[in-house]
């Protein structure tokens, strides 16, 4: 099993996905534990200082001016966690919890938070044991970190609250005991260090970037199949035309679509002067511009994620020269903004996909295909309502594209008077990505049927995709129960099997084999 080393340097987004989604184990670098112990000594030295130190000898938030007696400081940390573990609503997914845990562990291991080595080691042990604290969907404002979600993890570390192990909920003490893990009694500052980070929203960003890599490749594939099935031309995707507007994402999408269409007998069948159409509809011709914008937005989001994955986010933080300083690095604005950007481009890609699907179903625009691609139009409705499903999802995605990060509701008696709402931005992006997956599945299913109804065969790459679909979903014929067909194609999108069939390895560089452009 893959192992991710914590504390040896910055993590990559792929490391987050490996731990969160694929169960990779974690190991703390020995040098990181040494640094953690050295920093903890600084905190211990301040425990009896007559000067107030936030989170060590004072209360929190608007209660920062309240001095805490030494005898109450352990209870201070426990009270912080218990009161802040206040989430509500449906439990978030285990992969999100694992991502959040990994990223908080990464910050703890930087040696900038002032926790003891036992806290770091126990946190890692919980993660490796598959102990996933139950966290409600609502509770984080994305400022002062993802306070409520991270507090639920810290509560489990203390041996309290509810966790999930292998999908089964049970009391945290029972799960820790079964794994041979001793609960931790938190010391000065440790409760604060466990909750003051943007780890939840960053974890969801890393997972979203992995999903987008797959879905934007699928969008290019679906567009190519629609161009082919709707008797479109591949001329607008030529490299010299893309160079006139040199956006990297646009060029990548155009090259992908062109390669997928290369050598297609259908495209060749209407490429002569007998085809009087001057240009295709925008949803076909402009696919690289829209998909490319999404790619470039994802690239920007990846750069933000990389910066966050190199950060030590806590408040107060222990600086490299040994000072303990309050700061604002816990504010989620950088992450919240790109999460919102991604929701916008996801809606746009889905909207264009739905428009291409609709063209297949309208005999006035499908260039000779039967209405709704039905077996016996009138008796059969074909894929009519599949497009309704797409339209309903796309409408929801447009609502989800409303930025969360433009909102702010003051909290903590106006001490925390501007927040990022980044957690909410991340949650709605996850919903949007699931919607895009369904929309693209319906387009692929529709395009496959449309291509098969043409007189000429499909191209090599698109033909391989249609063959993969046909292993699970029958072709045109009398109407049948359609929901299982949509679900089956969606599963192929989710697994990446359609991209593999087409020879697409990633959205970054597009084509796997010895370049399909040699098919020309």
TrEMBL record:
<dbReference type="InterPro" id="IPR024083">
    <property type="entry name" value="Fumarase/histidase_N"/>
</dbReference>
<comment type="pathway">
    <text>Amino-acid degradation; L-histidine degradation into L-glutamate; N-formimidoyl-L-glutamate from L-histidine: step 1/3.</text>
</comment>
<dbReference type="InterPro" id="IPR022313">
    <property type="entry name" value="Phe/His_NH3-lyase_AS"/>
</dbReference>
<dbReference type="InterPro" id="IPR001106">
    <property type="entry name" value="Aromatic_Lyase"/>
</dbReference>
<keyword id="KW-0456">Lyase</keyword>
<keyword id="KW-0369">Histidine metabolism</keyword>
<dbReference type="InterPro" id="IPR008948">
    <property type="entry name" value="L-Aspartase-like"/>
</dbReference>
<comment type="similarity">
    <text>Belongs to the PAL/histidase family.</text>
</comment>
<dbReference type="Pfam" id="PF00221">
    <property type="entry name" value="Lyase_aromatic"/>
</dbReference>
<protein>
    <recommendedName>
        <fullName>Histidine ammonia-lyase</fullName>
        <ecNumber>4.3.1.3</ecNumber>
    </recommendedName>
</protein>
<dbReference type="InterPro" id="IPR005921">
    <property type="entry name" value="HutH"/>
</dbReference>
